[in-house]
Amino acid sequence: MAVNENAELEDLIRNAGGEADADGEEGSGFDIATLLLVARRSLIWIVLLIALGLTASWLFLRYTKPVYKSSSLLKIDEKTEAGALGLGSIMGQGVEDRQSMNQLSGEVELIKSNIIYRRLKDSLDLDVNYYVEGTVLENELYGTSPFKVEYNISDAGLYNTKFNLVFSGPQKVRLSYLYAGQERGGEYALGQPITLPGMTLRIMATALLTAEAQDKKYHFIIIDDGGLNTYLSTNLSVDIVNADANTIQIGFTDFNPAKAQDIVNKIDTVYLQEKLAKKQQATAQTLQFLEKTLSENHNQLQTAEENLQSFVRDNKTYDVKADVSAITEKLASQEEKRLELTEKARLLSEVTRLVEQERLVASETATLEESIPGLATLSDSPLTAQLTELNELQQNLRRMLRSYTRATEAVQQQESAISFLKNSVRRQLQQNRKGLQTQLNRMNQLQAEFNAELQTLPEKETELARLKRPFELYQKTYLMLMDKIVEFNMAKAGTTADFQILSPASRPGAPISPVRLMVYSIGLATGILLGLLLVAMRFFMHNTVTNVRELEHSTSASVLGVIPTYDKEKMSVSRLVVDKNPKSAISESIRSIRTNLDFISSAKKKRLISVTSTISGEGKTFVTVNLGGIIALSGQRVVILDLDMRKPKVNLAFGTENVKGVSTILIEKHTVLECIQNTSIPTLDFISAGPTPPNPSELILNPKFDAMLSELYEHYDVILIDTPPVGLVTDGILIMRKADIPLYIVRANYSKKSFLKNINKLMRANNFTRLCAILNDANASGVYGYGYGYGYGYGYGYGQGYYEETKPAGSAFDRLRKRFT
Predict the structure, then answer these.
(1) Contacts for 662-665 with beta carbons within 8 Å, 24 or more apart?
(2) Whole-angstrom Cα distance, residue 286 to residue 291?
(3) DSSP 14-58
(4) Residue-by-residue DSSP string for 442-470
(5) Does pLDDT of 365 surpass 60?
(6) Angle of CA points 690, 693, 698, to nearest 5°
(7) What is the CA radius of gyration of the chain?
(8) Is residue 58 assigned to a domain?
(9) Which of 91, 212, 412, 602 keeps 20 to 30 A from 77, CA to CA?
């Protein structure tokens, strides 16, 4: 028997604590209603966070100095030096390209260089900053200081030191400062030289020194060059706005708008001065370069002229091409003459042959010119006359021989005359031929000379061209440099900077930082974001059951009813309250539960109802006692059994002792009738748990427990059992198996949502088809239509009692707090 009981107990424990089955968990998904509930409860905190963000924005604006920015727009018209002088094509395109590279970037660096800073410091009084102390912030008195400081510092450690100054009289000031860790100073007169360790000061009044100004506190700081350079470089911005249009924007930020404007305008001025100085320096350097180049070119031109003169003097020519043409013409002319002489020589040879043949003409009818063509070209009249005479004598001789013989005197005389004339012609021909040959030899000699001279002309032409090139180049460059020097000297008088101020600096009206609208927007957005994060955090940390809708959504058990909070009295433990407040909202809600119980078990007159929960503190005993009271008030006889033998509380609810009870009945120490205790309601009795036994679960499994229930059925209509929490021990499961209606108590804003999974496990593992849930201690939103807003409280944790909740105050703040919570 004991073995079977232990096996059954182990099975119950395994079923109660087993893992979840494969059907999954119910109630998963995003809960919008819970999110809205959390958002409503967090609304007051969201409003406070937004107010906090706006307050932080206001404080930030209140204690932050506004920063102003002034800017101007410049247009740079840069030209290369070679292009300005027209030397680009002569000096080479590469030089011009190198001079025109990165012009705008170079101008930006020039504006941000120490050259401009040095000129700026010489133009503006930036080395001494004057301040007046305000209510919250200090203000710089740029150009509006009632006093002026002249100084001579020998100790560099006094730079960037704060000198406090107050007027102790109309013409007296009190000065104080820290030096070597000690406070020093004194009272001095205005305009008086002040000799201090490491420095000499003179404080002088300005036109702005009034009686009102003497009541304020001032201080000034003397800034060294390094600190001033850092200040300028940190706040100065130079940006290229449009590279194609060569526009540059100069901007300066400062806490004082007038100072920012003056610095930008002064930068434009000193930049103009620097550009003019730079152009004048460039002009001087350019003139120096031109004069030096002109002198060098003049020397080179003289050398080229001397070389050319030497060539002309040595070769007696300045134009070789003309010489070539002349020699060529001479050669052609000589060739013609040579051909003529050759033809004459041939003709003379022919004439000589004809003279030797003693027949000059072909026939007696032909003339001498016809028989000897070209005779007229000889241009020798005596020879022609002799040949004509010889031809006539030969013709007469031939006519005479036809009539006479050679022995005839007349024939002989004729032959003698012919012989004499022929000898004369021979001599004349020989003489002419020698003259022609002499002429031909002279012509050949001249032709050879001309050809030799013609062969030397290419070398002379090359040499002449080589000598002419530097001469012409130096001559052209010399003339061009002379013109440029004249033009550059003329342009020097009207030198202007190559830039225009398109938009001068103006005094800024609104600060660029902080922007009030942006700061307030950030504060508002931060407040809203923090509020949303709070809602999200509270939503994700919201792991308790809040309302009946969550209970219905997360469990498969029927929700029997909702019990509102109760705060009519302070209770340290659960009490029977329905008999004292029969018309209260809590009594009505429990009556509704009683009605629902009647619907569930309408066929049975005798009912066993068990009431359990997951852990202690969820109101299990409170619901049991007051539900029993409501049922007893309806005329039914009710008995309440306290089976939470580890932590009995029913006797505390009725204000009695726990000397005997269920534990003593089950061990047969007392009878049932001996342990029944009466209450203020005649039809309501209870049996306390009795002394705590060492084995409560084994006692419940004892058959004597069933016998006790049978005995109670004989006297009562309803048996209400206050069982132990099923999340801690298994006793409650054993009792729920015997109950007609097992009730499961879930407390709003106390029971974890994970507890609801235990209800589903119990129903699946033990087939509790009639298990019903009751939401306890629900506020107005958790009542889910019941509309009751009373409350009571319990302590948290197993073994603790009920907590006390004070009655809501009637103030407006309490009503507002209750409205949002």
Answers:
(1) 662/687, 662/688, 662/689, 662/690, 662/699, 662/708, 663/689, 663/690, 663/691, 663/692, 663/693, 663/696, 663/699, 664/690, 664/691, 665/690, 665/704, 665/708
(2) 9
(3) HHHHPPP-TT--TT-S--HHHHHHHHHHTHHHHHHHHHHHHHHHH
(4) HHHHHHHHHHHHHHHHHHHHHHHHHHHHH
(5) no
(6) 115
(7) 69
(8) yes
(9) 91
Domain-located, residue 55? yes
**pLDDT higher than threshold 70 for residue 765:** yes
State pLDDT tens for residues 45-85. 999 999 999 999 999 998 899 999 999 999 887 554 444 44
Count of alpha carbons within 13 Å of 626, Cβ hemisphere only?
Answer: 28
Phi, psi dihedral angles at 194 (to 5 degrees) = -110, 115
Residues 432 and 520 in one domain: no
The C-alpha atoms of residue 725 and residue 750 are separated, in whole angstroms, by 15
Spell 23-56 as b/e; 16+ CB within 10 A means b: eeeebeeebeebeebbbebbeebbeebbebbbee
Is residue 566 situated within a structural domain?
yes
**Alpha carbons 261 and 256: distance in angstroms, whole number:** 9
When the pLDDT of each residue in the chain is averaged and rounded to a whole number, the result is 79
- Do 522 and 631 reside in the same domain of the chain? no
* CA 286 to mean position of chain CA atoms: 45
Q: Are residues 385 and 467 in the same domain?
A: yes
> Do the Cβ atoms of 668 and 694 come closer than 8 Å?
no
CA dist 193 → 151, 170, 203, 219, 503 (Å): 9, 17, 8, 18, 44
The reply to whether 603 and 523 lie within a common domain is no
Question: 186-198 b/e with 16+ CB inside 10 Å = b?
Answer: eebebeeebebee
Residue 201 bridge partners (DSSP): 151, 194
Q: How far apart are CA 610 and CA 623, in angstroms?
A: 11
| Number of domains forming the structure of the chain | 3
Residues 472 and 556 in one domain: no
456 and 400, same structural domain?
yes
d(CA 46, CA 441): 134
Give residue 43's Cα distance to chain centre.
38
The whole-number average pLDDT for the span 236-248 is: 90
538 and 432 belong to one structural domain: no
Residues 449 and 555 in one domain: no
pLDDT-based confidence at 323, cuts 50/70/90? low
Is residue 684 included in any domain, yes or no? Answer: yes
SS3 228: helix
Q: What is the pLDDT of residues 24-36, one digit of tens each?
A: 444 455 678 778 8
How many Cα atoms occupy the beta-carbon half-sphere of 250 within 13 Å?
A: 34
Q: What is the pLDDT of residue 349?
A: 76
Give the residue among 636, 596, 598, 618 at the shortest CA–CA distance from 719.
636
What pLDDT, in 10s, does the model give residues 546-555?
888 888 888 8
**Distance (Å, whole) CA 263 – CA 254:** 10
Q: What is the mean pLDDT of residues 78-95?
A: 47
With pLDDT > 90 as the criterion, what percentage of the chain qualifies?
A: 32
Q: Which helix (H) or strand (E) holds 160?
A: none
In one-letter notation, the amino acid at residue 293 is T
Crossing angle between the packed helical segments 2-17 and 753-766, to the nearest 10 degrees:
140
Asked if 783 and 564 count as a contact pair (C-beta separation under 8 A), the reply is yes
| pLDDT score for 96 | 44
The yes-or-no verdict on residue 797 having pLDDT over 70 is no
Which residue stretches of 199-247 are H helix? Answer: 225-235
Q: Where are the alpha helices (DSSP H) in 767-811?
A: none
Give me the domain span that covers residue 40: 32-64+514-542
Q: Of 542, 559, 589, which residue constitutes the final position of a domain?
A: 542
pLDDT digits (tens, 9 = 90+) for 671-724: 999 999 999 999 999 999 999 888 888 888 888 989 999 999 999 999 999 998
